[in-house]
Every structure is written in C-alpha cells, then in structure tokens.
Design brief:
The structure is a homodimer of 216-residue chains. Chain A is mainly α and 216 residues long. Chain A is 83% helix and 0% strand. Chain A has helices at residues 2-36, 39-70, 74-107, 118-141, 144-151, 155-168, 177-209. The two termini of chain A are 34 Å apart.
C-alpha cells in the first residue's frame, strides 16, 4: 500500500513536471511571437493554454482522489498538498505566457518592442525559460540545493526590469507611450513567471526540509 | 470528533475571512496613498503586509495540522484543501496592495496619477475593495449564489481597464511615459486583486457544489 502510494505520488509529480514542460514551450513560443511579430506562433500559445488548463484539472483530481482514498500522513501528506498548490502556480505561468503572446498579437505585423529593447526583452525571456526548466527538474528531483539556488536566481530578472524601466523613462526614449506600456507589462509578466518558479522551488524546500526558504 | 472537526474547520474559514479584512484595509490604504500622495499611509500598507504573511503561515499550519491529525474525508477534506489554496490567493491580494502603495510612495509628494485619471483609478479601487468585501462574506457564508454573482462582477473592472488604456494611448495624452506606465501597472494590480476574488469565489462554488464555476 505505502509503495503503491509512493508510486502514485511520483506519478503526480511527473505530471506536474510535464505540465511545466508545456509552460516552457509556451514561454518560448510567446517570446518568439514577440521577437518576430509572427501571429500564428502567438495564436498557438493562446489556444495551447487549454491543454495546460486540462492538465491542471487532471492533476488536481488525481491528487484529490489520492488524498481521499489513501489518507497519507506526514511527509507524504505534505508532498501531496504541495503538489495541489504548485499546480495552480504552474497554470499561472501558462496564463502569463498567454498575456505575452496577446501583446505580440495585438501589434502584428509590427513588433511590440522597439529594436533597441529587443535584446533586454530576449534576456528576460531567457531567464524566465531557464527558471521554468530548472523548476521542472526540481519538481522531479526534489533537490533542495537546486531549489535554494533557484530562489536566488531571480536577481538577474530584477536587474533587467530596473534596466528596462531606466530605458523607457530616459530622455532618449523616442517611441512614445504605447511601446513603453507594452514593455512595462511584458516585464511584469516575465518577472511573475520567475516569481512563480521561485515560489514552487521554495515549496519544494519546505516539504523536503520542513523549513521555509527565507529561513535557510 | 466530527463536531470538533467542523468547529475547527469553521475557525479556519473565520481566520481566512479575518485575513481578507486585513487585505481590505490594505487595498483601501494603498488607494488613499495613491489618491493623496501621503507617504505615511503608503508606509503603513507596506509594513503591514508582514501581519498578513504571518496570518497566512498560521492558517497554513493550522490547516495542515487539522489535515494530519483528523484525516477528514469527502466534503470536509475538500473544504480544508480549498482553504489551503485560498490562503495563497488572499496573501497575493495583500502583495498587490503593497505594489500599489509602492508606486504611490515612489512619486511622493506628487501624485502618480494625473488629475483627470483619478476618478477612473478611484473606481477601479472601489470595485477591487467591493470584491474583497464580498469574497470575505462568501468565505464565511459559503453562499454559492453570491459566489456565482461575484464571478460575473469583474466585468466592470475589465471595462475600466480598457477605458484607462484608451485614455493613455489617445492623442490627448499629454503626461508622457512615466504616468502612463504607472497607470498601466496600477490597473494590472487592481485587476489581479479582482481576479483573485473571483478565483476564491469559484473555489467556494466548487467545494460546495462539486462543479466548477465555468460549468454553472
């Protein structure tokens, strides 16, 4: 019974990791749409979110069934409850990719981001994707060291956001209000994807060690 | 045993409602700071968030203890797991109030919002506060009708956001980039507060009826 439960718990975490892989593609697709102004890539991200939502429902139902029927205790219970909470965060990362894709779609055939801001946006996207990739691996491995390291990785994202604000609020900004607003919101969306990755990593630290990340 | 459990479950939901009341004050305080440029009100919201975070930790720990020791089943289990997920959303609403307060503080002694945009921002804030108030009552009453009604209440917020974008992207906008970016982000924060209220309401519908809100 305990063995079967632990297999099912692992299967739940594997499903969660698969869901993360879909989000990884979504962030990549949304970024590609943003960088190239390609409407069909944006559409694919937007319509593809339904699959991520379906996975969330399935994982929620499986976890809940496991909780009801097996009434796990101690660390098993902790892990299962954590999975139920992480799944909402992974879903949100998918929603945020959709927000990025929608801004890209809104400006097609133009680019939402002026040429001189493309490299900073690209770097934000890379940091976000890297964090999603790492959190996917952390979900599978439940590696506390990697989770703690991820918790510190969003410093670059913060710095990129500050840098992008400095650009669009500087006297040299000649693109007016619309691209400035787009960039501020896009920066917010990438930053939130990173925040969710950190939050999931800190849940992993908590379920494995019993200590919150900020106490490490 | 069952009676004691149901008392404790109600106590958890009461705590969650109390946490909502703190968030209500935070949204109100942040809005006051935004409308008046009052730094000390902004500071109070920012430092007050620690209390909201502490409540979250306490509610999480209590729920988890209840889950471990009482191993509830069926609807009790469903409610308790829902509480554990709602608490994250209530905490996020608090964080979003802090974001609003920080924008207000950044522009002190000036106002972040130009005079002609104050009324639309004020209305966004009112809608957000109203939704937090209603969701607090829904958490206590678990009133499905009220929860379904709340799920439809964010239409005004969507409309206000569209209206604010139309203003700041119009040719009549003379305030430049900085207030435009502030307003876009502020709109996003109020909208997210409303989204979380809707999400909590839909969790209530789900735990009480077994159906998701979109299926109603």
């Amino acid at each position: 019974m305990r063995k079967a439960f632990s297999d099912e718990l692992n299967a739940t975490f594997d499903d969660l990791a698969d869901m993360c892989a879909l989000v990884e593609s979504a962030v990549n697709g949304a970024t590609k749409a943003l960088m190239t102004g390609d409407a069909s890539t944006a559409e694919k991200v937007i319509s593809g979110d339904a699959e991520i939502d379906k996975m969330r429902e399935r994982i929620e139902e499986e976890s809940f069934t496991l909780l009801s029927l097996q009434a796990p205790v101690a660390s098993d219970l902790r892990l299962l409850v954590a999975a139920l909470r992480m799944v909402s965060e992974v879903e949100r990362m998918g929603d945020l990719s959709v927000h990025v894709a929608k801004i890209a779609r809104l400006r097609v055939p133009d680019l939402a981001v002026p040429a001189e801001m493309l490299s900073i946006m690209q770097r934000m996207a890379e940091v976000a994707v890297d964090m999603v990739t790492r959190v996917r691996q952390i979900i599978i491995s439940r590696d506390v060291e990697a989770a703690i390291a991820l918790g510190r990785a969003d410093e670059e994202m913060d710095q990129l956001r500050r840098q992008s604000f400095a650009e669009l609020l500087s006297d040299n900004w000649t693109h007016g209000v619309e691209p400035a607003v787009d960039i501020a919101l896009l920066g917010r969306y990438y930053e939130r994807i990173a925040d969710h990755a950190v939050s999931i990593a800190s849940r992993v630290v908590y379920v494995v060690t019993g200590h919150r990340l900020e106490e490490q």
